[in-house]
Design goal:
The complex is a heterodimer of chains A (about 270) and B (about 325). Chain A is built from ten helices and ten strands. In chain A, β1 and β2 form a beta hairpin. Chain B is an all-alpha fold and about 325 residues long. Chain B is flat, with a radius of gyration of 25 Å. Classes of the chains: A alpha/beta (about 270), B mainly alpha (about 325).
């Protein structure tokens, strides 16, 4: 039988990695979040494992990005946000009274929906976080920047123009630069908020490949609107609807044999 | 009936209303240009003959109304120094205020609303009121008390001088700088702040390393506007530092000074022989205009250089 290259359907990668020997890293317990009087997240409990890609899916406004932003306390920046319940990373409550958000964000990096490189050179973009956390020495900065750019599969494309403006890169390159910037400070967890939603299919494929590579060293939580993407790259999937966690299971199970009717309707495209 | 389109795509009739409105807006624009042109041409034609190197480089020793011997060097020096000293004070204070208002203050709080209202009202206060404020606050209160504390009551600070005139101008131009800086800070994409904070930067680091550098050209625009406004103002310095006549250049910030704008007033109202004084009056006005343009162009040059650096980054 001739080799047929499978079209990138929902299920090509799903068998690859069932979360074996899962070590819990992030434990969310009874988390509720209010914007003023509106309850945006309703009693969510969820355990995410180390070195596993977890996808948050669900229709717009279901709270998946809000939950993601709870994990590095970016919601602190918004007025009138109130949080109940607890989020523990490695056993420590990140909303505890003596927690320093600076230390937290060093360990929990983030990549945003809209690529947001600083209006500085490519080198300075990656070096920014390193300098913030005390790296001054020029040669170690250079080594770390190279390592991070290689890690983000961008080095070969930019090695000859490290000191050119980051704004001259294409959209996909900018997003990989943002990933390089995030991994430069060696976080344990990387949060990705629809990292490929503004990219063309080829750039998206590169970012997805990258995510699969990063899984070796990082725990990744990704919010996505693209269900094929969730199926391709994640090991675990959580489906949210109207601020509630509907179902959380291995990605294979969510996409082939979901326990809840609502999940099935969403992943098969009947609503959402 | 619905009108059918013409075959050759030409309008069926001349559109008078459209023509009329285009004409009106055009006329209004040309009127502004024409007015500026008339003023400039008038000043250049009358001022040019009186202008000479001797005129701009001479310190008048006896009669400021005598075209043959007078000069305006002390006025040029005085105006330049007061504008520069004002800029040194107004930029940092204005920028810090704007940073507080946009980055730290809660928009809905009563305090923020009071500050914003105060800034807007400050912009509407007549400039002569600032002059009186400068006299009352800076000279009679601050200066007087400095003398009491440091000089045993001997008068060193408590009189009109360059420093108090500059500070008064700084208070007057503060709203311009604050508003321009606020606009510049608001134009910095929120995504850049988030990116910096998500990397574990403190708010302070984010403001200094990301937000302010990005807003710098806009902040400089505020500085340019402040300089333009202040250079020609006379009322605020009337009671706070300007002198009718001084035989020498100011050497300290506590000295009084002569000023181009005020000198124009002196030449046009105090002269014993108006016809004789007219050429130097026009020449002084021309020099004031040139100085203002020069200060502006210098600031615009710095700003465009900064923008270029930001784009190419080398």
């Amino acid at each position: 039988m001739p080799e047929i290259s499978l079209p990138t359907t929902m299920l090509t990668n799903v068998k690859a990695a069932p979360a074996a020997r899962a070590v819990p890293l992030i434990t969310i317990e009874n988390l509720a979040l209010y914007y003023g009087a509106t309850k945006a997240l309703k009693n969510i409990s969820l355990t995410l494992s180390e070195r596993v890609v977890t996808a948050f899916i669900g229709p717009s406004g279901c709270g998946k990005s809000t939950l993601l932003r709870c994990l590095n306390r970016m919601n602190d920046l918004i007025d009138n946000v109130r949080i109940e319940g607890s989020v523990k990373i490695g056993g420590h409550d990140i909303y505890g009274p003596d927690v320093d958000v600076i230390e937290l964000r060093k360990r929990v990096g983030m990549v945003f929906q809209k690529s947001n490189p600083f209006p500085k050179s490519i080198f300075e973009n990656v070096a920014y976080g390193l300098r913030l956390h005390g790296m001054r020495d020029k040669s170690s900065l250079e080594a770390s920047v190279e390592e991070s750019l290689r890690g983000a599969a961008l080095w070969d494309e930019v090695k000859d123009r490290l000191h050119a403006s980051a704004l001259g890169l294409s959209g996909g390159q900018q997003q990989r630069l943002c990933i390089a910037r995030a991994i430069a400070i060696k976080p344990e967890i990387i949060l990705m908020d629809e990292p490929a939603s503004a990219l063309d299919p080829i750039a998206t494929a590169r970012v997805e490949e990258l995510i699969l590579e990063l899984k070796e060293n990082f725990t990744i939580v990704i919010v996505t609107h693209n269900m094929q993407q969730a199926a391709r790259i994640s090991d675990q999937t959580a489906f949210f609807y109207l601020g509630e966690l509907v179902e959380y299971d291995a990605t294979t199970k969510i996409f082939t044999n979901p326990a809840r009717k609502q999940t099935e309707d969403y992943v098969t495209g009947r609503f959402g | 009936m619905h009108p059918s389109p013409t075959k050759d795509f030409r309008a069926k009739e001349f559109r008078y209303s459209s023509f009329f409105f285009t004409g009106i807006t055009g006329l209004a624009t040309y009127l502004i240009v024409a007015l500026l042109g008339v003023v400039l041409v008038n000043i250049i034609i009358h001022g040019w003959p009186g202008l000479s190197w001797r005129f701009v480089s001479t310190i008048p020793k006896k009669d400021v109304f005598d075209p043959a011997t007078t000069g305006i060097l002390p006025m040029i020096v005085g105006t330049t120094i007061r504008v520069v000293v004002m800029t040194v004070f107004v930029l940092p204070v204005g920028v810090i205020t704007a940073v507080y208002l946009t980055e730290y203050a809660h928009n809905t709080s009563v305090m923020t609303r009071i500050i914003r209202t105060a800034v807007n009202n400050l912009a509407g206060v007549p400039s002569v009121v600032f002059g009186l404020f400068g006299l009352g606050f800076f000279i009679n209160f601050v200066g007087h008390n400095l003398d009491l504390v440091f000089n045993n009551g001997e008068q060193a600070w408590g009189h009109p001088s360059l420093i108090w005139a500059s500070l008064t101008l700084a208070v007057m131009t503060m709203p311009v700088v604050i508003v321009a800086t606020e606009e510049a800070l608001k134009a910095v994409p929120p995504g850049l702040r988030e990116a910096s904070l998500a990397l574990g930067a403190t708010k302070l680091k984010t403001i200094f390393k990301i937000v302010l550098p990005q807003a710098l050209p806009g902040i400089l625009t505020g500085g340019i506007l402040a300089v333009s406004r202040a250079a020609g103002e006379v009322a605020p310095i009337l009671f706070t530092g300007v002198a009718y006549y001084m035989s020498d250049l100011p050497t300290h910030l506590t000295d009084q000074f002569m000023d181009l704008g005020y000198h124009v007033f002196v030449l046009s109202t105090q002269s014993p022989n108006i016809d004789q004084t007219q050429p130097i009056l026009y020449a002084t006005v021309l020099v004031l205009l040139i100085l203002t343009f020069a200060l502006n162009i210098a600031a615009i040059f710095v700003r465009s250089k900064m923008r270029r650096n930001m784009r190419s980054l080398h």
